[in-house]
């Protein structure tokens, strides 16, 4: 199992718009494409409280490439993204890392 950690740093004041988009659109589209989330978090204390961090679970990098590619080109996603950004850009920066659990990790 491979986990992808994605951190979205929002444009100031736009975190609520990002959370709404995930809640109302993105998660449904992920389900359609077989993308499995492993947790979502906002930053309580840290460098910025305008961040959303989440984890995705993948069987392999190949699975990620196939499913993520289909999601990113889904017309419903492209429409929803454009509509959610009608009032301006939401995300200023995205950082993505691929992680593998250690032998002693509670998460496998």
From TrEMBL:
Q: Which domain of life is it from?
A: Bacteria
InterPro entries reported in the protein's UniProt record: Dimeric_a/b-barrel, NIPSNAP
| Domain NIPSNAP span(s) in chain numbering | 3-105
The protein's organism comes out as: Bradyrhizobium stylosanthis
Q: What is this protein called?
A: NIPSNAP protein
Which N-terminal residues, if any, form the signal peptide?
A: none
